[in-house]
Each structure stands twice: as structure tokens, then as C-alpha cells.
């Protein structure tokens, strides 16, 4: 019975998520309104999108061992290219979305092939430099295209009617959920493919892969391009959800946020990045509400100032997780089990199988 | 000609700023394999401490710069002792911990002093301009260049002539061997963090001079170019960082002037990409 439960809980969770828009369940503290209200659906959809983005990013960090600091660039490319294709080229939404994802893939191929020429930390720095160049380009508003600080809003007339307006939030929510399922499927499929096994080998010991007669460069590039494409698709969904493109999407903070999500949840595990992305996004939104609440406003300065900065709290939380929870939240049950097993000394510690596949 | 001289001076001033940030970053990376994401935050701490000492603390400018540098150094030592050292055996977690600090500290500065830029007090002696080959150049550019040259000379003397400099140099080459010889590399780690923090904080104080104001995100913005400089110069090489700083500062200024504003930042990244294609190990041939 418990085995069945363990095996089928993702399907159960998916069913619950699919039906969420029909529910009026109030979740005080967790959400502002009842579960099925547009505001709540919007927040949950954002959580799902970031959960998916973090899972895609983990293809690099947790699966291949590549610490990229420029992943937000591909997300922002999908976001801006789709929006601009509708605004400037007058394309319909579907061709524009395909164009956006294609741009992300092409850019990931181009920049990945350059940055993968350096290994280790050099790779991290180079990806950061490229992403920063992208962020600057977006900020500088070349030819009035990106709208600079203000960003650009999505053209309602080019979007299908079912995706516009607050009454259709449920449809956007389902799209976000579909994007999450797609990302998890791609990640699962690629990781268990022969290429995925080479990725795991590169993560453990790149030199050994070379000795086996394989060139890690090509395999790493595939991981980079797949992750870039998934991030681009995430940009499209984000565009629909928030109704526009803003320069924050391209900032280095956006990549660092993805990194925090993955490490918070547990990199290299199946559900960890998703969990981290959902928790981080939810916390970032709720902490923002907390900062403006009366309870915080009445506190003395020593407490009020740090509490009013969500980024400070998230940064501090991140440092705490790195220290106290190596492996992230996903490893927590296994650590607790292992701790119990050590204490009773008659049960061998459960092997950590989750995510090792 | 005037324009070229002015652009060259401004580019060299900016390059000096990059060098102040990148030298510490490069040493820390070379010795410890730690990409210090909190380095930009150390710069911001130096900048705000200087600004605070000069405005609310009522100190003279140079005393305020000294104060800012000392505070930045103390912050760097604290960072190494409290956060980096316990993660000695986990290099990637060391980097991640600095990422957390790099997010949290600027947010804290923003919480205390607000997100807006604060005007930086310029002492009268540095607020003027100098005529050089027909161009009118702000004096503070030369202050920056002078500071960078002094730091470069001091670092080179320290690395070449002192016992600790020898340990640091040897540690950059082969950390395992130095440890095997029975030398406690961890003291060198703290020392290098202190040096890096001091240079970054000095950079922060002088960045306030260069930009005329301080804001919480200044450090992070400069950090990215410092990363570019470190990669281009060859990881762990102070001299390489100096050469690359000059190149990056000049390219950025000239490209910003002669093409569209903003293209200078892009051209720096293009320069980096081209260099990596031709010489994947950077200018000095060192590999990460």
C-alpha cells in the first residue's frame, strides 16, 4: 500500500493541481484569497513556472555539474523575442512563441559553444559576463525595442482571447502547469538517456570521460542548449502570466535566484529544484507582503530594516541552507532517517536512492 | 586629440577601479578556488562606510577613505572566518555561501539607506580639473590611477619579498604541496581575504569619487567587469589582472564614445569571447 502511494503520489498531486481552479478552499496564511481565485491562481502559476525553470537549470548544475551564472539570459530571450515578434513583426502568438524559443536555442548554442571552451569557474564567469551584456542591452533600450526600465507589455490583440483578462487566469494557470509537466518530462527523459549518463559522468569526473574516449564538450553543449530552450519556453509562459517583459528577467539577480532555488530544494534530485522554485517564489511574494504589513512597520529599526528586505531574508536563508542542509530540502527525509538509524543502531541507514537515477 | 586624451584618462581611471576589485578577487580565486560573489558587497560596504564617515561622521575625506578601507577589511576577515573557513572541504558550497552574502548585504544596505543613490562628498582639492595635452581631465581620474598603481606595487612587493607572499604564491601554484610541506595555508587564506577586502573597499571609496554618488547595487555592477578582468588576465595572476583592467577600461570608454552608449559594455564581452576563442587560458596562460 505505501509502495503504491510512493509510486503514484505525483499523479495524485497533478490531479489536485489540475482541479485547483474549481476549488474555493481558503488557505489562510499561505494565500491571500481562496484557492480558485484569480490572485491565488496567478501566484501558484508563478510558483510552478519558477519550479520548472529551476528544474531546467538543474540540467546544468545538478546533472552535468556546470555552474552557469547566465541562465536568466535564455529565459529573458524567450520572453523578449516572443513579445517583440508580436509587437514589431506583427506575428500571431503561436508563431511568435516558436520564434522566441528558437531564439533562445540559437543563442544558447552560440554562447554555449564559446563559454564551454573554458572549464570550471572560468565557465561560470564567462556565462555571467554574457548574461550581464544581455541585461545591459535590455536596459539601454536599443532602437526603443526593449523599453528600457519600463519593459514592454504584451499586445492583447495578438493573443488568443482565452489568454487575456483576469477571468481567464485559470487557462494561464493550466499552461503553466503544462510547461512544468513538459520540463519535468524532458529532464527525466534526457537524464535517463545515454547522453544523461555521460552528463552524470562529467559531473563526477570529467577527466575519466575523456579517458573513455568521449569528448565532454559536445555533451555539455547539448545540456546547455536543452536547458536554454527550456528556459526560453519558460519565458513565453512568463510573458503570458505577467502580461509583459521587464528587465528584471534578464538581471544577474534572476540567475542567482534560480541558483538559490535549486540549492534550497536540492540539486541533482528529481523533485528538489521544483520544490525549491515553488518555495522561493512563494516566500519572495509573501515576504514582500510581510514587509508592508503593520506588524513589521511597528517593530524597532534593528528588526524592521532586515525584515523589510525580502532579498536579505532569502540570502540569509540560503546561507543557512548551504551550512545546515547540504543537499537541500530533498535530502532532508533521508538525513532524518539516517539520523534515526544511527541512534537506534539496529536499522541500517536507508540508501539515498532519490535522484541518483 | 583632446577627446582621445580625455577618453584615455577616463578609461584608465575606470580600469584602475576594475583592478582594485579584480586584484583581490584574482588572489582569492587563485589561492582558494573560491569565486567570491560577496566581493561586490565588500566594495559596497567600503563605499558606504566612507560615505558615512565623510558626511555623518564628520571626518575629512582621506580619513574617511581610511575608515572605509578598514571597515571593508574587517568585513572580509569576518566573512572568511565565519562563513568560508567552516566550508573548507566543500569548495562549491563556499561559492554558494558567498552568493548568499552577495544577495543579502546589498539588500541590507538598501534597507538602511534606501535604494536611491547618495551624493558622495568630493573634497575641493579633487573636485577640479587638470589641463593635459589640451584636454580638461577631472583630477579624481588621476587619484584612481595613482591608487591602483600603489596597490599593484604593494601587492607585487608583498608577493615577491615577504614570507607570507611566498606562501601565497606557492599556494596559488599548488595548494596541496604547500599543505603537505606543513604550512598552514588557512592563515594565508585569511590574509588574502583581508588584502582583497581592503583593495575592494578602497575601490568602493574611490568609486564614489568616480561616479559622484554611492548606491547599493554599484558593487554588484562593478563585480561583473571584475570577473571579466580576472578571466581575461588569467586566473590568480595579479599582473594579468592589471593588464586586462587597462584593456577593458579603455575599450569600454572608447567604444561608448565612438559607437552608441552602452555598446562599450557589450564590446568588452565581445573582447572576452574573442580572447577565449584564441587563448582559452587568458592573457597569462593560466588555467582555471
Automatic annotation (TrEMBL), chain A:
Compartment annotation: Cell membrane
InterPro entries: ABC_transp_permease (IPR001851), LivM-like (IPR043428)
Pfam family, one: BPD_transp_2
Protein's membrane topology: Multi-pass membrane protein
Assigned keywords, A-Z: Cell membrane, Membrane, Transmembrane, Transmembrane helix
Transmembrane segments: 67-87, 93-111, 118-138, 172-191, 217-241, 311-330
Name of the protein in its database record: Branched-chain amino acid ABC transporter permease
Origin organism lineage: Bacteria, Bacillati, Actinomycetota, Actinomycetes, Kitasatosporales
From TrEMBL, chain B:
Principal location: membrane
Keywords from the named record: Amino-acid transport, Cell membrane, Membrane, Transmembrane, Transmembrane helix, Transport
Bilayer-crossing regions: 12-30, 60-83, 95-115, 135-159, 188-211, 223-250, 257-278
Compartmental location: Cell membrane
CDD domains reported in the protein's UniProt record: TM_PBP1_LivH_like
Bilayer topology annotation: Multi-pass membrane protein
Pfam families: BPD_transp_2
Protein family (similarity comment): Belongs to the binding-protein-dependent transport system permease family. LivHM subfamily.
Identification of the protein by name: Branched-chain amino acid ABC transporter permease
